[in-house]
């Protein structure tokens, strides 16, 4: 699929024109990406110039313990959009779901790309990496995911972890995590890693970050390794139902008056306040809608360990742990400590009592001068 | 016992009970008590923050009765209470606090700071640090039965004079009568007309009463010092007198702290219930009024007057309505003071303070608040029902050159009694 394209080494600008995309449309895309990433207005033009000059970027995409949802999200979302064109443009040298080649030929393509673009290719990973029992729970062409990641990562320029599984371990890592799944960042420590979490992530976020890497380098990241531009605000901060939250108007169920009126979904478990993503602004399916707009609370899929953070339908304020056992234990322990310290204290007090001698009139000698 | 630092510390350990422990552990340090304390508001000095007055006791509580405090002590982080700490505390616990309880009233947690200050005083007394004036008063009270040292003989002479003046026979040690009347030293010394006044009132109401030669005064310096044993001795004397005479009702005089001691603290410090009831004299007078047995004339003209609620009787003792009933019966121009009843500002001299020489400048200074309260009402008569308040008010009025007369309520009632030919 990709071998000859690499050889052409054409620029993105040329590629777009040959695909019938006007410069105007291209500029529009750059403006969209730039504004979505909160870059200054001048950046759109700079990005357009840089992108059109950019040569094909070699990309190796590794899919590990995952459901292919991330790939689905990118490839089937829109008709021929600029996002998909960007994906067309990059030299996707290895992607075992998308590539035509199979078996030895496919693995050969990967090895070739690794060799040819050593130190320059971008590694995209989706899916978690099982490490338990030597990583036997997921292999490709007889190579464990762990081995493959370590092998490909060592010569990569940067790594993009696409989806919550690659970024934080995701569903495979959910309790009890039978395969010992971990995130990319748990294994690779010496390469820049950009996390684009989400289950799946928003397509424009993926292409936007890619465009940023191609033009301005690695974007500013938050403490979870996510680009600030897309993950800087919480869903709650940008939610169109926020005014109802502020007014204290909540849906108490999915079929009550509040739900029909489109009130805030906090009390039916919306995780918007603790979830950072761009759903509320960029939305899904070409800007059609996003979960809260469809009447379901955010489940927090772009946050680490979201699957283990309690029920999707319990309000955030109820807490995520099952506290009953803890509470009983703590109560018993507290009571025991209380009784023990009470006994100690009453011992102290009775000692004081024993030493006590009454104050009598004979003591009234006015010693205080 | 011999008073000593060791006894002082030991006493502080001993008096920390469940309420005090919970008060300490629930104090949030909000400082609202300071805004309620006349010594803070009139001086602006934060050392007068009420809860700070019991700091040595708090440290002992922390070091002896809390896990963290014990750990701190173990690793040498805790500052143990020294003799100097206790000496320094005398100023805060005795010389700048009337135990008026305004702080306890406003504490949002409900901490009874006055209760803690009393117990702090108990520790200082055991350490031999109680002010010498209070110690001397305690000795006088036990030796003569009177806080100021007026023996029964003095009272007997006054009784004789009152009998001559009124022509009414006044009983001493008469059993099985309705009331046992107790006086305060201030009344014996400065307002002894109260004897003839009450003789008249009771005669007219058909109430029988007596003095006791065993207990003629209710004042209790033991309570001021927090010396529970001495306080109990003083109370026991009254209890025994009432028991011997088989009297069911005991009257506490116009003295706030005496009322607190005999009415509220008594059974707790002697450790058994009374076989009688205790009333403030004003409660008794109001009851007679309610029964229609008190015949008074209305005050001539519309001279405006106000009432100063004594802290121990009104705020801490709960006697708030009777004085108003009586005043409204006699006056058509009774003006309520701002912050009256339970919230009234203290006179500044109670709790033993106006006997302590060192405290005098402070007592004078904080009178500023009372002066303001009186001046904004534009009255010339201030009535009260506590001899200590009356004393402090009179001194303050004189000190500030105010045109104000201070009166005791019993005296006011007596002055308004209808003459025999008037009814």
Short description:
The complex is a heterodimer of chains A (369) and B (423). With 369 residues, chain A is an alpha/beta fold.
Structural descriptors:
heterodimer; A: 369 residues; alpha/beta; Rossmann fold; Cytochrome-c3 Hydrogenase, Chain A, domain 2; 2 domains; five-stranded parallel sheet; two-stranded antiparallel ribbon; 18 helices; elongated; disordered N terminus; B: 423 residues; Fumarate Reductase Iron-sulfur Protein, Chain B, domain 2; four-stranded parallel sheet; 53% helix; globular
Number of domains of chain B: 3
The CATH architecture classification of the largest domain in chain A is 3-Layer(aba) Sandwich
Oligomer: heterodimer
Task: Name the shape of chain B in a single word.
Answer: globular
- The CATH homologous superfamily name of the largest domain in chain A equals NADH:ubiquinone oxidoreductase-like, 20kDa subunit
Structural class of chain B comes to alpha/beta
Number of helices of chain B: 22
Kindly provide the name of the CATH class of the largest domain in chain B: Alpha Beta
Question: Spatial order of the strands in the main sheet of chain A?
Answer: 2-1-3-7-9
Mean pLDDT of chain B: 92
Query: What top-tier CATH class of the largest domain in chain A fits best?
Result: Alpha Beta
**Strand segment tally of chain A:** 9
> Structural class of the helices, strands and pairings of chain A?
alpha/beta
Helix content of chain A: 40-55%
Query: What is the helical fraction of chain B, as a range of percent?
Result: 40-55%
């Amino acid at each position: 699929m990709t071998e000859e394209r690499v050889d052409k080494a054409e620029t993105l600008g040329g590629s777009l024109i040959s695909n019938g995309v006007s410069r105007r449309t291209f500029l529009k895309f750059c403006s969209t990406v730039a504004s979505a990433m909160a870059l200054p207005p001048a950046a759109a033009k700079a990005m357009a110039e840089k992108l059109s000059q950019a040569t094909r970027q070699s990309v190796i995409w590794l899919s590990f313990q995952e459901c292919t949802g991330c790939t689905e999200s990118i490839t089937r979302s829109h008709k021929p959009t600029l996002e998909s064109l960007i994906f067309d443009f990059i030299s996707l040298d290895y992607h075992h779901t998308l590539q035509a080649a199979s078996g030895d030929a496919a693995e050969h393509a990967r090895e070739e790309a690794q060799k040819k673009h050593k130190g320059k290719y971008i590694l995209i990973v989706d899916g978690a990496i099982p490490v338990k029992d030597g990583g036997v729970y997921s292999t490709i062409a007889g190579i464990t995911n762990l081995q493959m990641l370590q092998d490909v990562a060592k010569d990569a320029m940067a790594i993009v972890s696409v989806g919550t599984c690659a970024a934080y371990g995701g569903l495979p890592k959910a309790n009890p995590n039978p395969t010992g799944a971990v995130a990319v960042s748990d294994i690779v420590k010496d390469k820049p890693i950009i996390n684009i979490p989400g289950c799946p992530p928003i397509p424009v976020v993926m292409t936007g970050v890619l465009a940023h890497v191609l033009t301005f380098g690695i974007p500013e990241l938050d403490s979870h390794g996510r680009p600030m531009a897309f993950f800087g605000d919480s869903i709650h901060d940008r939610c169109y139902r926020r005014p109802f939250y502020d007014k204290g108007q909540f849906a108490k169920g999915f079929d009550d008056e509040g739900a029909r009126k489109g009130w805030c979904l906090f009390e039916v478990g919306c995780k918007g306040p603790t979830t950072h993503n761009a759903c509320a602004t960029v939305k899904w399916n070409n800007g059609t809608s996003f979960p809260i707009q469809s009447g379901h609370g955010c489940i927090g899929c772009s946050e680490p360990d979201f699957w283990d953070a309690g029920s999707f339908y319990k309000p955030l304020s109820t807490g995520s742990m099952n506290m009953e056992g803890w509470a009983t234990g703590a109560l018993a322990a507290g009571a025991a400590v209380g009784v023990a310290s009470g006994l100690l204290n009453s011992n102290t007090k009775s000692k004081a009592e024993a030493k006590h001698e009454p104050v009598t009139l004979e003591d009234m000698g006015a010693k205080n001068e | 016992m011999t008073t000593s630092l060791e006894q002082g510390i030991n006493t502080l350990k001993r008096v920390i009970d469940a309420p005090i422990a919970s008060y300490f552990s629930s104090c949030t340090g909000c400082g609202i008590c300071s805004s309620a304390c006349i010594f803070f508001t009139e001086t602006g000095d934060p050392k007068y923050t009420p809860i700070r007055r019991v700091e040595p006791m708090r440290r002992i509580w922390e070091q002896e009765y809390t896990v963290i405090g014990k750990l701190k002590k173990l690793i040498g982080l805790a500052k143990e209470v020294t003799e100097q700490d206790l000496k320094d505390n005398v100023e805060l616990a005795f010389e700048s606090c009337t135990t008026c309880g305004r702080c306890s009233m406003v504490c949002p947690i409900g901490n009874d700071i006055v209760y803690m200050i009393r117990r702090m005083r108990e520790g200082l007394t055991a350490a031999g640090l109680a002010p010498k004036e209070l110690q001397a008063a305690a000795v006088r009270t036990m030796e003569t039965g009177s806080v100021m040292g007026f023996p029964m003989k003095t009272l007997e002479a006054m009784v004789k004079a009152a009998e001559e003046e009124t022509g009414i026979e006044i009983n001493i040690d008469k059993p099985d009568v309705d009331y046992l009347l107790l006086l305060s030293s201030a009344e014996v010394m400065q307002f002894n007309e109260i004897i003839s006044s009450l003789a008249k009132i009771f005669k007219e109401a058909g109430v029988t009463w007596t003095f006791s030669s065993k207990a003629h005064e209710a004042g209790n310096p033991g309570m001021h010092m927090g010396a529970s044993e001495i306080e109990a001795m003083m109370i026991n004397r009254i209890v025994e007198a009432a028991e011997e005479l088989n009297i069911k009702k005991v009257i506490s005089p116009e003295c706030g702290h005496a009322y607190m001691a005999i009415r509220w603290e008594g059974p707790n410090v002697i450790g058994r219930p009374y076989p009688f009831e205790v009333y403030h004299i004003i409660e008794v007078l109001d009851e007679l009024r309610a029964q229609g047995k008190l015949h008074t004339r209305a005050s001539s003209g519309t001279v405006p007057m106000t009432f100063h609620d004594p802290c121990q009787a009104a705020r801490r003792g709960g006697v708030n309505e009777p004085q108003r009933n009586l005043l409204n019966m006699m006056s058509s121009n009774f003006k309520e003071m701002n912050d009256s009843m339970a919230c009234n500002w203290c006179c500044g001299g109670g709790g033993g303070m106006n006997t302590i020489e060192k405290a005098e400048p402070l007592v004078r200074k904080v009178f500023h608040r009372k002066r303001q309260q009186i001046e904004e009402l534009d009255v010339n008569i201030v009535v009260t029902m506590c001899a200590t308040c009356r004393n402090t008010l009179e001194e303050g009025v004189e000190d500030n050159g105010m045109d104000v007369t201070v009166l005791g309520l019993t005296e006011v009632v007596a002055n308004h009694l209808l003459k025999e030919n008037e009814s």
